[in-house]
Amino acid sequence: MDESSLKEQINQLNETFNKQSPEAVLSYFLKEHKGRVALASSLGLEDQVLTDMILNLDPSARIFTIDTGRLFPETYSLIDKTNMRYNTKIEVFCPDYRNVEPFVKKYGVNSFYESVERRKECCRVRKIEPLLRALSSLDAWICGLRQEQSVTRVGEQIVEWDKANGLIKVNPLVFWTEQQVWDYIKERNVPYNKLHDRGFPSIGCQPCTRAVAEGEDIRAGRWWWEDPKYKECGLHRR
């Protein structure tokens, strides 16, 4: 499909889904791309909402996560809790040691504090490379992005063409507020990371995530030493 036709198809899908529920969006893509679509979960609140929605629609649907090797213990525990709750098996992709070991040997264990470039290289080694392996068997991937999350995400749409990875990206919760996410979690008793109760609205790798003060931006605890405009790991809009 040429670029103009692809853009037209994406626009039509957004027109169709802009006023529909996240479940309607998910139902369409789970059927249209069955076996070739998966949720990329970071085990955050939004991804737990999507996990609940997806597995209620299709218990055999694929969900994967990236284990960077530096996650919080609470995040690892949530993987097990989620698997048990939904009788599923989240696929776990890990970085290639042949990339991690030379990086650590050359720059050190915590070199990501030194510069944006060094931090993004760490993210590339620990997140992007395993993500590419996870996406290699897919036509579309589902994400928990919301426009409200940060200045880097205000332009996200429900359906996008992910040019960097060559497949469709679906953001069913893109227009949801944080309150809507919490309401769903509480109403359905969806398992979530207990760090959220201790001031961590956004959770990534342990050394790159801190709790935030009341009134701070929900992404303020991610790579807090950097300017907000750089606060993406590279999974989105590379």
Fold and architecture overview:
The chain is α/β, with parallel strands linked by helices and 238 residues long. It has one domain: 3-Layer(aba) Sandwich (Rossmann fold), CATH 3.40.50.620. The chain has seven helices and six strands; from the N terminus they run ααβαβαβααβββα. Strands 3-2-1-4-6-5 form a six-stranded mixed sheet. Helix 3 (45-57) crosses helix 7. The longest helix has 20 residues, at 116-135. It is globular, with a radius of gyration of 17 Å. The two termini are 22 Å apart. The relative contact order is 0.16. The model has no long low-confidence stretch (mean pLDDT 92).
Topology (elements, then pairings):
Elements: H1 3-17, H2 22-32, E1 37-40, H3 45-57, E2 62-66, H4 73-86, E3 91-93, H5 97-107, H6 116-135, E4 140-142, E5 159-162, E6 167-170, H7 178-188
Parallel strand pairs: 1-2, 1-4, 2-3, 4-6
Antiparallel strand pairs: 5-6
